[in-house]
Write a structure and sequence with these properties.
Layout: H1 2-12, H2 18-29, H3 35-44, E1 72-82, E2 86-95, E3 101-107, H4 112-126, E4 138-141, H5 150-159, E5 163-165, H6 175-194
Parallel strand pairs: 1-4, 4-5
Antiparallel strand pairs: 1-2, 2-3
């Protein structure tokens, strides 16, 4: 009976989404029904269609693999909770070819200036800031706010570095640095929390 009432109510209010229908039904009929229940009932009756999703498939691997050190650097932030101190953010630069950690910096924020400070450390440690090279390392990152910031783009232009961003919702693009962060966190937990 409730099911039939919801269907009838939905037909009377065809312009409303399942969420809006659930709210309006609860207000007017004084009977709570969830958005997901409304959606399931309407979907079963072919009164609503699933939203169209545009799928952008990310590649399984880079077409052009790195062939030397300092060709491509992966960068990312990871969260670390320090008991008694709060949350900190580890900014890391990893060489894609050798998987060597070139530079890291423990930060209290995840801003573009934290990324540029870590890049300064990496450029100095690798010698790429002082050496005369044809091509500086490309930087591979995700689409976090610190990596899409204009300040970072200006910094990279000034340093002559290209920036490659991974596909949204595809952390495998930066798989090497994601794996390193996970391994490092597992090691820290093992040594400091379980031993």
């Amino acid at each position: 009976e409730i099911r039939a009432d919801i269907i009838e109510f939905a037909l009377e209010h065809e312009d409303l989404t399942p969420r809006e229908l659930a709210i309006k039904y609860t207000d007017e009929k004084q009977y709570f029904v969830s958005e997901s229940s409304v959606y399931r009932i309407l979907k079963a009756e072919d009164l609503v269609t699933a939203p169209a999703h545009i799928v952008m498939k990310a590649a399984n691997e880079f077409k052009e693999k790195t062939t030397r050190p300092n060709e491509l650097w992966q960068t990312d932030f990871t969260y670390l909770k320090v008991l008694g101190w709060g949350w900190f953010y580890l900014s890391t630069i990893l060489d894609d070819y050798s998987r060597y950690i070139i530079a890291w910096k423990l930060c209290t924020t995840m801003k573009a200036e934290d990324v540029t400070a870590t890049l300064d450390l990496a450029l100095e440690a690798s010698g790429c800031d002082s050496a005369t090279v044809v091509a500086k390392p490309r930087l591979l990152s995700d689409n976090g706010s610190s990596y899409i910031a204009g300040d970072l783009a200006d910094y990279l232009d000034e340093k002559g570095m290209d920036h490659v961003r991974g596909a949204p919702y595809h952390p495998q693009t930066q798989g090497k640095i994601e794996r390193w962060h996970q391994t490092m966190k597992n090691r820290v937990m093992l040594e400091h929390y379980f031993l």
